[in-house]
Amino acid sequence: MASLNLTSITPQPTGFTWNNNSYRNPTIFIPRKRHVSVTLATSSPETNSPTTTEKPEIELEFIGPNPGNDGSYPVDKAKAISGEKLLRNIMLDNKIELYAAYGKVMNCGGGGSCGTCIVEIVDGKDLLNERTNTERRYLKKKPESWRLACQTIVGNKENSGKVVVQRLPQWKNA
Ligand code: FES
Predict the structure, then answer these.
(1) Which of 97, 108, 135 to mutate to test the pocket of ligand 1 (most atoms within 8 A of CB)?
(2) Whether 169 contacts 119, CB under 8 Å
(3) Which of 31, 39, 62, 131 is the most buried (most CB within 10 A)?
(4) Which UniProt keywords apply (predicted)?
């Protein structure tokens, strides 16, 4: 904070008086000095910024189920603060396609009751939560690497790294 001492001048009416037979004009103001102390807030980043600790991040890559014209599979990328979001929300926030045709119109909105938000974790499964009971029920006969995106928490608030996700593994064109 910086402090300034300013002097303000406040006009004071003098009134009019008769003095030695002279007349003082009442419209004349005689300024009177008054000291004013003003405190200014400064926003110096060096002095005021609290010590910010960066939250760990998870990098994500999403591989599409079908190759493009050049034969390579499309890859979308996103980042998320560790432990703050579900995989489903990260995909929807980044406009990364999650659902197949049926799931697009019939999904449960992330409630864990439709089983249409299936993804495969190709790499980085240790950065995610364990399969939930809902997933065990819906994915009983599916590969261990398959998850329901609405049940999958990305990161645990402390870890960081990279997760590679296969979108729509049930429709993957190998
Ligand atoms: S969105 Fe319905 S189970 Fe995931």
Answers:
(1) 108
(2) yes
(3) 62
(4) 2Fe-2S, Iron, Iron-sulfur, Metal-binding
